Structures are given as C-alpha cells and as structure tokens.
Amino acid sequence: MDYQTFRGPDLRSARGAVRAALGPDVIIGSTREIPLDDGTARRAVEVRAALAPPSPHRSGVRPRPQPVSQVEHLEREIDRLRAEVRALAARRRTRDRATAALLASGVGERLAADLAVGSPKRASDEGVARWLRRELGARISLDAGVAERSGPRVVAAVGPTGAGKTTTLAKLAARARLDQGRRVTVVSFDAYRVGAVEQWRRYAHLLGLQLETSRDELAVARALAQPGADLVLVDTAGGAPGDETFATAARALGRVVDSPLHTLLVLPAFLGAEEAEHARAQYARLGADGLVVTKLDEALSAGGVLGLALAGLRVAYLCDGPRVPEDVAPASLERVLDALLAQGERA
Ligand SMILES: Nc1nc2c(ncn2[C@@H]2O[C@H](COP(=O)(O)OP(=O)(O)O)[C@@H](O)[C@H]2O)c(=O)[nH]1
Ligand SMILES: [Mg+2]
User: Fold this and answer.
1) How far away, in angstroms, is 314 Cα from ligand 2 center?
2) Residue 60: inside a domain
3) How many CB atoms lie within 10 A of CB 106?
4) DSSP 3-state assignment of 45?
C-alpha cells in the first residue's frame, strides 16, 4: 500500500488534507499527535493514508460471502433484543391500559391487577375495551329476576341503612301485583325506625299488599302459612349484626325451610370496593346469595360493588332511580357490563 503523510493543526484539517489530495476512497494507516518543531509546546496531527484499492463491487465482481464477524453477530443480537423489548413494552402498555380502565371503574386494585394479567399482547384502545368486556362478561354470573319466578318463595333484602332495601322491595311488590297479579305479603323487621312502618303502610294501601310489621321471627312462617300465600318479601333494618332486629331477621330467615329463599344484599352503586367487601362480610350471617345494585343513576360506575359479582355473588336486579315501580330491572349481562365499565371504558 502506498501511504502518504498529511499534517494539520487538528484531526479535522489533517483529514481535510487527505481528502483534498486523495479523494473520499482512502485507507487510513495511522493517526497520531506530533510535536510542532517551532520551539513551542503546540502539537499537530499527522495522518498516514493511501488510496483504497478499487472495490470488487464497483468492478462488477460479485462479493464473496464473508463469514459473519463478531461485530455483525452482536449487532444482529442487539436488533433481536430491541424487537423483544419493544414487544414487551407494547404488551405492558396494553396491560397498563386494561388496569387503568378497571381502576377507573372502581374495581379494587388486586382484582384489577389479576384481571389485567391476561390482557392481549397488542391491542388498540377499542381492542382493550372489547377484551375487557368479554373477560368480565365471562366472570359475572346472574340470578336475574328471582322475585318474578312462580311458586311460593321468600325474597329478603339485607344491607346498610339507606341502601334502598325498602324501595327495591316496594318495586318488586308492585311488579308482582301489577304485572303478575300475585298475592304479596311483606314482612318488615324494620319496626323500630320512625317512619319505616308508615312507609310500608302507604305501599300496602296503594298496591294491595298484606303487611306484617312484627318483631317476631315467626312472622315469615305465618305469612307463608296463609292460604294462597305466594310471594313473601322480607324487609330488614340496616343495623349492625349485633342489633336485635338483625338477629330477629336472621332467625326468621333460618326458619324458612320449605319455600325457596333468596336473600338479596342491597348496595348502592357508588360504594368503593373496600366498603362493598366490608358490607358483604358484615351481612354474610344473613346468607346473602344475590346482589341488588341501587342508585346507578347517581354513580359514574359501579365497579366497586360489581367487584362482588366478579367474586361470585350473583346479580339479581339493577335499580337506576327512586321511582316505584319503574326504576328496577332484572340484571342482564349487557347492563351489568355497562354499569361496570361506564367510567372505565373512557379512561
Ligand atoms: N336515586 C336513587 N334513589 C334511590 C334508589 N333506590 C332508593 N333510593 C332512595 O334512597 C333513599 C333510601 O331508600 P330506602 O329504600 O328507604 O333505603 P333502606 O334504608 O335500605 O330501606 C330513599 O330516598 C329512596 O327513594 C335508586 O335506585 N336511585
Ligand atoms: Mg328500609
């Protein structure tokens, strides 16, 4: 190789000199700093360069396949890893979006994380929403319209004060009377609270219901023993489990042996996941086997309460207003999912 030497005050100018003399296709032999022989401490850069031999490409000769160098091998490995990291990031983002939608709907953190684990690898926002609906739909079970089923049965409402127990039972009583012409008896164990009995007297008068406002746990059995007894609705006070009316209701419900008994836990839609879980535990002694979600008209989403449905409690009714009897509907999967994701889908 025919090397020539070029100098400059810095590397840039030395390379400039190389380019000016030999053009762009050069081979650099060496580059080094040298002292300037002008008696100062200044230094210059010296580059040795030669014209590159003509490339086989340009001369029309096919290049022979070169063995893959270590550098190329590493580059390919890095590309592969990059693609993998991108795929993982996309998957994580999908999972994050699913988690965010669930949290926005009010579903508790643990449940949201558990559900989002199975989210699809890659998906648009609509894809994530569709997947969530499918996934949630598969986990929700319904026991829709329990009070409408024929044959003597007892439907009891339990839950915190103000949740909408009395209103919901009045709606069910009205539907049974007006739509089905059934004989309906109401047993109210909420005999202590001022106005509670009065509330039922008015409904009984309006709708033609039999009313038992007893503090005696045998009242349910008596109601069922009446000739032609059909639907018995049991209203309870919201009190704590130690409370006397609560104990009476528990004993009464325990005595209903022959007729099917449905104990509905009535909870307002705006409860958070922890409060809903707490209520479920508190009323477990009354053996709630169904869920009524009330006040859907007052909540953005009902994920906290419907988290109970995802954990196995079957949804019976949805209520979206105080009007008797209009604002109640037997639960349908579509409406439960709408209530569950009302807020989350927009997140
Ligand atoms: N906005 C709305 N209000 C409701 C609903 N259900 C019940 N309410 C109201 O909530 C209040 C308490 O209801 P009530 O049935 O007395 O609750 P209880 O203490 O559980 O028997 C009343 O003012 C009802 O009119 C509902 O679905 N939506
Ligand atoms: Mg009440």
Assistant:
1) 22
2) no
3) 26
4) strand
* 88 and 197 part of one domain: no
Is 127 contained in some domain? yes
Tens-place pLDDT, residues 93-106:
888 888 988 988 88
Q: What is the pTM of this model?
A: 0.74
Residue with tokens 């604002």: 327
Which tokens is 321 given? 């207003």
Span 65-92, pLDDT tens digits: 566 678 888 888 888 888 888 777 666 6
Q: Domain of 197?
A: 146-346
**Measuring from each residue's beta carbon to the nearest atom of ligand 1, which residues come in under 6 Å?**
159, 161-167, 238, 294-295, 297-298, 319-322, 327
Q: How close is the Cα of 295 to the center of ligand 1, in Å?
A: 7
- Ligand 1 center–CA 321 separation, angstroms: 8
Q: What is the CATH number of the domain that holds 297?
A: 3.40.50.300
Task: Give the atom of ligand 1 at the shortest distance from the alpha carbon of 235.
Answer: 21
Number of folded domains that form the chain: 3
d(CA 326, CA 106): 27
Q: For residue 214, what are its two tokens?
A: 């007893």
> Which of 167, 264, 318, 323 is the pocket-test mutation for ligand 1 (most atoms within 8 Å of CB)?
167
Residue 10 token pair:
């810095």
- Whether residues 165 and 241 share a domain: the answer is yes
The reply to whether 291 and 180 lie within a common domain is yes
